[in-house]
Amino acid sequence: MIILGSTGSIGKNACLLAGEHGIKINALACYKNYKELNEQIAKFNPKLVYIKDENLKKYINHKHVFTQIDGMVEFLKACKSEFEGDLLINSLVGFDGLEPSYHAQKLGFKLALANKESLVAGGKFLDTEAINPIDSEHFGLKFLLKSSPKIKKLIITASGGAFYNLSQKELKTATPQMALKHPNWDMGAKITIDSATMANKLFEVLEAYYLYSTKSIDACIERTSSIHALIDFVDGSSTAHLSKTDMKLAIAHAIGLGEKEILENVNLLELKSIKFRPINLNKYRIFALKDEVLKNPDLGVIINAANDETVYKFLEGKAGFLDISENIFKALDKFGSSSIKSIEDVFEINQKVREFCKGI
């Protein structure tokens, strides 16, 4: 298989599973963590590697290194010419993941997707039926949908993030250090902030729409993160997916290890008290956009770009926590009537929204 984003949490877990189950890794790609990449090269001996930062190429212990000068698409084309029929894991962070997702499918790779932005911004231009989702919620939904009766509603769960117990007044002075303390998951900075604002859950609703072709999707708070997804069926029955909070399970199914023992089962006798609560739309303003986004999924590219720019401003201390949602609504007011008819339109609107948010 090929792993894009190999030095991140998903990528490292994918490498771990590959090593344990004898799966050949033919290519690795990362942003700038050259030390971790070199360790992976030494262990898995990939044929091709990619590091985005051209200045770091000289540190990579490999003969065939691509960078952003060559381009990710050229890297994927080289992979295609070297090895046919590979599974490609895309766990890149942010909007940069859309282009490789789009071209990976065009080139015939089987796509295992952990990059939310590919679907949020460009889902209408991807073959969503051919995607193996790597997200605990969407894996849970896919698992529950095996040989299932007709769906009434899909439900995904949210932990509530680091600020669930904070008041609206306290959020005004929330710091990046506070926001990065997720109660259940060990994730990167960007997605941890998205969890605190509930932007992450809005994106997952839109992902579920593209993956499972229904607009009957909702989310609720489940603080332990033991239950990742639920489904109501039209016959009146409901079902839930439970597992430990470990992304190796979703990754394993995405790469064809669904029949292997990956994790220990949840001990039901030791399970914490589980309660489901509604999402407070006054506190989590971004999630209040759910119904509007499901009516017009093209808004995803605008929301993603505005969120992306402002989250990084927040992490750099250049914006307040509440500015994240505020800038999303400002961007929607300005660009919400934009028409997206091609993949090129996605990239154009993405750039315009980012420039607008940089100027706020």
Automatic annotation (TrEMBL):
Q: Which cofactor does it need?
A: Mg(2+); Mn(2+)
Swiss-Prot/TrEMBL catalytic activity: 2-C-methyl-D-erythritol 4-phosphate + NADP(+) = 1-deoxy-D-xylulose 5-phosphate + NADPH + H(+)
One GO molecular-function annotation for this sequence? Answer: 1-deoxy-D-xylulose-5-phosphate reductoisomerase activity
**To which pathway does this protein belong?**
Isoprenoid biosynthesis; isopentenyl diphosphate biosynthesis via DXP pathway; isopentenyl diphosphate from 1-deoxy-D-xylulose 5-phosphate: step 1/6
Q: Where does Mn(2+) bind?
A: D135, E137, E204
Is Magnesium one of the keywords? yes
- Using the record's annotation, list all stretches that form the 1-deoxy-D-xylulose 5-phosphate reductoisomerase C-terminal domain: 131-212
**Domain spans labelled DXP reductoisomerase C-terminal:** 242-355
**Domain of life from the UniProt record:** Bacteria
1-deoxy-D-xylulose 5-phosphate reductoisomerase N-terminal domain residues:
1-123
- Pfam families reported for this sequence: DXP_redisom_C, DXP_reductoisom, DXPR_C
UniProt-listed InterPro entries: DXP_reductoisomerase (IPR003821), DXP_reductoisomerase_C (IPR013644), DXP_reductoisomerase_N (IPR013512), DXPR_C (IPR026877), DXPR_C_sf (IPR036169), NAD(P)-bd_dom_sf (IPR036291)
The biological processes this protein is annotated with in GO are: isopentenyl diphosphate biosynthetic process, methylerythritol 4-phosphate pathway involved in terpenoid biosynthetic process
Q: What is its EC number?
A: 1.1.1.267
Residues annotated to bind 1-deoxy-D-xylulose 5-phosphate: K116, S136, E137, S159, H182, S195, N200, K201, E204
Per UniProt, which keywords does this protein have? Answer: Isomerase, Isoprene biosynthesis, Magnesium, Manganese, Metal-binding, NADP, Oxidoreductase
Q: Which residues bind NADPH?
A: T7, G8, S9, I10, K32, N33, N115, E117, G188
Protein family according to the UniProt entry: Belongs to the DXR family.
Q: What does this protein do?
A: Catalyzes the NADPH-dependent rearrangement and reduction of 1-deoxy-D-xylulose-5-phosphate (DXP) to 2-C-methyl-D-erythritol 4-phosphate (MEP).
Name of the molecule in the record: 1-deoxy-D-xylulose 5-phosphate reductoisomerase
The gene designation is: dxr
